[in-house]
Amino acid sequence: MNAQPVAPAAAPVTMLVTRRLRKAALPAFEATARGMIDAASSFAGHMGGHLIVPDREAVTPLAQILFAFDSQAHLDAWMQSRERAAWLEKLAPLTFGDTAMNVLTGLEGWFALPSQATRKPPPRHKMALVTWLGIFPLVLLLSSIVAPRLAPLGSVLSVAVVTALVVVAMTWLVMPLLTRLLAGWLFPIKAPSP
Fold first, then answer.
1. What's the confidence (pLDDT) of residue 5?
2. What is the pLDDT of residue 65?
3. What contacts 24+ positions apart, CB below 8 Å, involve 138-143?
4. Residues in Cβ contact with 71 at an 8 Å cutoff, skipping those fewer than 6 apart
5. Mean predicted lDDT score pLDDT of the chain
């Protein structure tokens, strides 16, 4: 019997798009960006989209939009689509300057600073350490407080609920906080060369 090689599973990818906004156009930009995210949701492999609302007090507000797809091929289909091109035309008068686009394939998505221009992600060892700093206390806390209450549901369901809570807390609470607190270490500013 000849074994057929198994194609590697496609890895999910996230596109992080950063744009500089005209301050007066902020409400229009938010409405248009949300429409663009809704349009992307009809494409194959779409896993989600999110607008990171810009700081309204900033002199030059920066907005970031995340588009998540289950594979690079599905992301490419969205990126090259007529629908996306039409939405970009609507966004053009609301923004200025270059648009920064980064494809995030792993932990990098947790390390985007919404209040700053898109930067290169930190080294993996720093991302791993900060991720552990967030996950360890969460798992310890949830395992001691929530897991015992879920014991009647069985171990599989209990673990599923605890891990779901960890992911939600890490994505929307812990990692944004840790990324801001440790920004100087994660994204050191290089001194200009003499």
1. 45
2. 85
3. 138/165, 138/166, 138/169, 138/170, 138/174, 139/166, 142/166
4. 10, 11, 12, 13, 45
5. 78
What ranges in the chain are assigned the alpha helix state H?
Answer: 26-40, 72-79, 82-91, 124-145, 147-150, 155-169, 175-181, 183-186
DSSP 8-class letter at 45: T
Residue 114 identity: P
More confident residue, 120 or 48: 48
pLDDT above 70 (res 4): no
Residues whose CB is less than 8 angstroms from the CB of residue 91 and which lie 6 or more positions away in sequence, other chains included:
19, 29, 32, 33, 36
pLDDT at 117: 44
Phi, psi of 119 (to 5 degrees): -120, 165
Q: Are 46 and 78 in contact (CB under 8 A)?
A: yes
Predicted pLDDT at 83: 95
Of 75, 5, 71, the closest CA to residue 40 belongs to 75
Nearest to 57 by CA among 26, 13, 33: 26
CA geometry: angle 73, 78, 9, nearest 5 deg:
25
* More confidently predicted of 145 and 127: 145
Q: Is the dihedral of CA 45, 42, 86, 101 positive or negative?
A: negative
| Domains of the chain and any CATH numbers | 13-111 (3.30.70.100), 124-186 (no CATH)
